[in-house]
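Let's practice the habit of predicting before peeking. Look at the sequence and jot down your guess about where helices and strands might fall. Then scroll down.
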Amino acid sequence: MSASVTWRGTQAETVISQLVEQLNAQIPQPPTARELMSSPVRTILPETTIKQAQRILLRYGHSGLSVVDETGKLIGMISRRDIDIALHHGFSHAPVKGYMSSNLKTISPETPLPTIESLMVTYDIGRLPVLENGQLVGIVTRTDVLRQLHQDKTQTSQRPQTSELPYCPLPQVMGQMLHERLTPQLWQVLTTASQAAQKRGWHLYLVGGAVRDLLLANPAKIIPLQDIDLVVDKAYPIPLKPLPTDAIKPLETSQKNTEPGAGVELARELQLQYPNVRLQIHGRFQTAALLWHKDPELGSLWIDIATARTEFYPYPAANPEVEASSIRQDLYRRDFTINALAIRLTDPRLGTLLDFFGGLQDLEKKVIRVLHANSFIEDPTRIYRAVRFAVRLGFKIESQTENYIRYALESGIYNRSVSSHHRTPALQTRLKGELKYILQENYWKPALQLLGHLGALRCIHPTLEFTKELWRQMRLVDRCLKRFQPPEESLEQAAIREPWQLLLEVLLAQL
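Done guessing? Here is the structure:
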């Protein structure tokens, strides 16, 4: 009798334990630091001077830096405020070790969100380093926590929908959208790419214009995308060595990643799966392109795969200097809010929409809004891109963004760039590319009028203005092209008679 009771008790405990495990498996688990953290982490050594640390913050836009020793062990944190105060008191030459905080609170990659939230509130901490096996692998900020809390709140209590676009859409909503609005063949390519990335422990994101166009598309239609940007987020810490005083170049060279970019590696993997695709590699920018031309299933398709990166413009209108970074930093470097959207294609949280700048709301409002105040100072081609997107999508350029455009033009910075000894690719090759995009489209007339209204033709030449006579000549050439252009001609003739080139020549003839 006793043995029977004991057996039944043990059986009951087992059954109850199994039921508890099943119930726990059904309860959504809170996200961990591994899902929230930013990586890689910008670090400095304790001998780095205050002035050098300030220049690193300027370059990357961070609010603080992690301090590590020669072995990569975290020994302190220094905030922008600490650096600003030290500079104010004249200690630009002093090492950061005298000003950093060494009494640190740290977390592991598996620390759950409630614990992270509690630590930040209890100790008034704005950022928490994430350590794994004693090494710094990431950092979680207040913004990361707020964004996740907002998303969790949205999952339990949806805001009423007031427009065609959902507010803060859930991962399952975005995942369903991808299935419904992409062709099965393209979805298979993206699935293959995401599986290859996940196998390596990376995250893969669909970013930029493809996300924008999918969100704007008619829900009932499949979108035949032909130009797709993917970003691989490969997280690893990058320690920075101290810079020589007043030298920025050693910083750039000390962080060069000599290993093949994750984007290139992933592109090569996809080439094995699709032998008919053509692969182009641009090692300097850690990007690769896969090109299908008149494929029976995919048609003409261009997929760019890049390693997540950050960029820095050493002077206005320069080519940016790039290096490997995180998806967050990659989105921060983009031009407009509606182009800074990303959808995660890998588990966990497949279909998560990353929107750090309110791009989804700007799509609803139909406005073009720039990310940074100095965006047009660094790259004048963004002025032409703003006009191109506004006219093509039927959007308006947001008033503050228009003010930034006018300020950049009136500052005369482009005139100084042209007359300086620096090369200005933005005013040469990249600007020509933007002009080509505009002049070869059927919306070139309203685009050119808007460029003239903004005074942006000065980017081509300081004396170029949009006059009535110029506008008359442009329309006259357009009518002649439509009337006299032969329907069929040889490639040699076509190269000479490209309509957009003739329109460009009319512009340049005014100089």
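How did you do? The CA atoms of residues 117 and 146 lie 9 Å apart.
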